[in-house]
Design a protein that fits this description.
Strand content: over 45%
Distance between the termini: 41 Å
Structural class: mainly beta
Helix content: under 10%
Strand order of the largest sheet: 3-4-5-8
Shape: globular
């Protein structure tokens, strides 16, 4: 479903035949396209500008379950039959002609939407965890967690691996602070959050507090905090660096 963040109104309901694991919008003020992926093993792009309401042919203004407007939104599939496993992540690149997918076939693909085929691919050594594009940095980068490794790719050059760092523990989430040259990891089999130096690859800090696997990590826009989300039902905020921040000293 596509929601209006100001009114809470459901604007579109996009029907799929199986579980949807990933959704991505292009970085535009009012995007009219949305990409989806999941257990269908299909990368699909929906054109929201061409969506039509079924209320014109039905007396009911809502979908059968009452969740929102019943709409017909045209879509097309990119690369039919290419993904060999469920799609875990879909990311729209800084280049709006490039879409990135990471699937359980352990392959990251950079799709050229003009050719509707991969411009580059990279095979991971484990199932993908988080895939995050740092588009706020002066040098955008893509961070991917898989197995015991964190992969860091260029955010502008499809398939260009900047660095692969292998850690002692399996990791399910990773986030890079490019300016500080540090990255954060969390694991499915470990409840600790770890801070590493990007250049030396050494462990700098260990944060304890979660009581379940850590599935997601993200830096705040100002880069002074990072958040971790865990299966224990909590999101924790951690101060990044030694400078005071709000009530933190």
């Amino acid at each position: 479903m596509i929601w209006d963040t100001h009114t809470g109104e459901c604007l579109h309901t996009l029907t799929h035949a199986h579980i949807v694991r990933a959704v991505a919008f292009p970085s535009q003020p009012r995007p009219q396209l949305v990409a989806t992926g999941g257990f269908e093993k299909k990368l699909r792009i929906f054109d929201l500008s061409s969506s039509t309401s079924a209320s014109s042919t039905s007396s009911s203004p809502t979908s059968p379950n009452g969740a929102g407007p019943s709409t017909s939104t045209p879509s097309y599939e990119i690369g039919p039959g290419v993904h060999g496993g469920p799609i875990k992540s879909v990311i729209w690149s800084t280049d709006l002609n490039i879409l990135i997918t990471a699937a359980d076939d352990k392959i990251v693909r950079w799709w050229d939407l003009r050719a509707r085929s991969p411009a580059a691919t990279y095979e991971l050594e484990g199932f993908p965890g988080t895939c995050e594009l740092d588009s706020l940095s002066s040098k955008p980068s893509l961070s991917i967690a898989a197995g015991k490794s964190a992969y860091f790719f260029s955010g502008t050059q499809p398939g260009q691996l900047l660095k692969k760092i292998t850690t002692p523990k399996d990791i399910s989430a990773v986030a890079l602070h490019a300016e500080q040259r540090k990255f954060i990891t969390g694991g499915a089999g470990d409840t600790w959050v770890r801070v590493y130096d990007f250049d030396s690859e050494s462990e700098l800090e260990v944060q304890k507090g979660h009581h379940g696997p850590i599935w997601t990590i993200s830096f705040s826009p100002d880069g002074k905090l990072y958040a971790t989300g865990s299966e224990d039902g909590t999101v924790k905020l951690w101060k990044f660096g030694s400078d005071p921040y709000g009530l933190w000293r």
